[in-house]
Write a structure and sequence with these properties.
This protein has about 290 residues and is an alpha/beta fold. About 45% of the residues lie in helices and about 15% in strands. The protein folds into two domains: about 5-185, Rossmann fold (3-Layer(aba) Sandwich); about 190-290, N-(1-d-carboxylethyl)-l-norvaline Dehydrogenase, domain 2 (Orthogonal Bundle), CATH 1.10.1040. It contains eleven helices and ten strands. The strands form two sheets. Strands 3-2-1-4-5-6-7-8 form an eight-stranded mixed beta sheet. The chain has a two-stranded antiparallel ribbon with strand order 9-10. It binds nicotinamide-adenine-dinucleotide.
Length: about 290
């Protein structure tokens, strides 16, 4: 465990917030999750419980470790409960205005020395930092999905991030037994700068009728040795998040090669956001996922 950080606060009980809570509690930290409603907290805690149980079944942790880790996690829809946080990781919806509103709400509650980090996939760390009262104690700690499985964490400094903030974050990530890669503060950093244009291109391939959902995913799994097809991966990430990252790349780098595919826009407008909403490029409501086109 980190020598300086004991209490980890997490904003957002979605797929990423729950994953970060999971690995932090498993590493011995006390974790508090905040989201907009008690219902979201309850469903997040149920997800974490289920994921811990799977790790027990797979022999990755004992039942005692599972109950001890679970007991270290609390949650509420009251922002004041984040006050003890030494490190607060914001993992709310990928929307700059949402994140700005959250910082305005939480900064007055936090201890002056607390570090505020964002799990954003693409937004400017420097710009988000400027919306807080502590740009020198603000940075990007970008986990990959699913957090308990993926080994990488990208660390991103904003222009004002102090070295002490960066080293505390590096030490925290190492204590979770994850590997750090350092990215500069440019749209979508390293992983998503490379990954999302590939996913967007797969959606164009579908849009232009070059292949079906099944053909495209099979092609990339067997032809490029990817563990998941790009459309399956898009559903897994969340199509709203994918669109948001493409928009950040398009706006931030002003290059037409990042133009979000209109079909991606249409799926998001339909509320077909992938696995988390039950439907995306695949329909997850039955026993096995079925392509939606
Ligand atoms: N999905 C991925 O693969 C992935 C990977 C790495 C990073 N991220 C980033 O992590 C963040 C969260 O993504 P996710 O996939 O967990 O999204 P998600 O949709 O699963 O969860 C977002 C959560 O934020 C909550 N939220 C929204 N507004 C809020 C507010 N004002 N206060 C408190 N909570 C609020 C929502 O209720 C929801 O529970 C985003 O910034 C995303 O870019 C996502």
């Amino acid at each position: 465990m980190s020598a300086v950080l004991k209490n980890i606060g997490i904003i957002g009980a979605g797929q990423m917030g729950c994953g970060i809570a999971h690995v932090s509690a498993a590493a011995g930290y006390k974790v508090h999750i905040y989201d907009l409603s008690q219902d979201r907290i309850e469903s997040g805690l149920a997800t974490i419980n289920g994921n811990f149980a799977r790790q027990v079944t797979n022999g990755k942790m004992t039942d005692e470790e599972r109950s001890a880790a679970l007991a270290r996690i609390t949650g509420s829809a009251d922002v004041n409960d984040l006050a003890p946080s030494d490190l607060l990781i914001e993992a709310a919806t990928e929307d700059e205005s949402v994140k700005r509103r959250i910082y305005a709400q939480v900064c007055p509650v936090l201890k002056p020395e607390a570090i505020l980090a964002t799990n954003t996939s693409s937004l400017s760390i420097t710009r988000l930092a400027a919306a807080t009262d502590r740009p020198e104690r603000f940075m990007g700690i970008h986990f990959m999905n699913p957090v308990p499985v993926m080994k990488l964490v990208e660390l991103v400094r904003g222009i004002a991030t102090e070295e002490a903030t960066f080293s505390a974050a590096r030490e925290f990530v190492a204590s979770l037994e994850k590997t750090v890669t350092v990215a500069e503060d440019f749209p979508a950093f390293i992983v998503n700068r490379i990954l999302l244009p590939m996913i967007n291109e797969a959606i164009y391939t579908l849009y232009e009728g070059v292949g079906t959902v099944d053909a495209i995913d099979t092609a990339m799994k067997l032809g490029a040795n990817h563990p998941m097809g790009p459309l399956q991966l898009a559903d897994f990430i969340g199509l709203d998040t994918c669109l948001s990252i493409m928009q950040v790349l398009h706006d931030g780098l002003a290059d037409s090669k990042y133009r979000p595919c209109p079909l991606l826009v249409k799926y998001v407008e339909a509320g077909w956001l992938g696995r988390k909403s039950g439907r995306g490029f695949y329909d997850y409501r039955g026993e096995t996922p079925v392509p939606t086109r």
